[in-house]
Amino acid sequence: GIRLAPKEKLEIPVLFMPAEMKIYKAVVVIHVMRENGENWPYEVTGESNKDLNRNVIVAENGETQGILWIYPINGTPEAPQQKSVVIRCQARQRLEQRVELLLIGVMPGATDLPDAGNSATLDTEESSSTPEVTGGSSATLEFLYEVQYQSDEIRYQLESLVGMELVEKEWDTESRIVTLIFNVVFAPSKPMRSEATLIIQCTAGGLWKFPLVFIATEPEVDDVINIEAVGLNKESIVGFKLTSQTR
Prior knowledge:
The protein has helices at 50-54, 152-158; strands at 24-32, 40-43, 56-58, 63-75, 85-90, 95-104, 122-123, 143-149, 162-172, 177-186, 192-202, 207-217. It is mainly β. 15% of the residues are buried.
């Protein structure tokens, strides 16, 4: 019973309040009819566009009585903000660390978890595309994960210094907590502090975001240069070489 004038806009509020970490789907259907109750003279024939045929209500005389707009809605629950994971390494060193992340409220699949490494890939670029799932079964509980950076500058700075790989999964069916164990490699070349976000999505539904903080501390002293004075008010010179690691 909502009346709309020509060119008028209609806002339809949609509230999403998930109770569990699973995929929710709904459909919003908008049905429009002419205010005077008359039909549109346009007749839908068998040669008309198939999408149009599905979205119109045809009267007995073949004229268009109503028009439908159908909007599918997919709801993905997102877990509350997780604690930051801090990866700390001295500059010009290489750190390899195992990181355990807890996913609370995972909905169980039809079968147990697949073997580690065959159901998730890492996309070190920003989330412009969906990570590809390799192996596993559609009935298997699988996870997708990717690293998102706050800016292209941070991505350019970190993507060659950081590596992440999912190596193990543990599933507690009673508490519905999944533990994902990642092997993280961090090899900074200079002191820095950068942030990123590890986004994990379960194919059964649910999204978890873990802030990552990469800290590279000051490197060890390369060498000590001793300069001996040859006398008062006289210069002493010592030479040493510096090699650039890049062009």
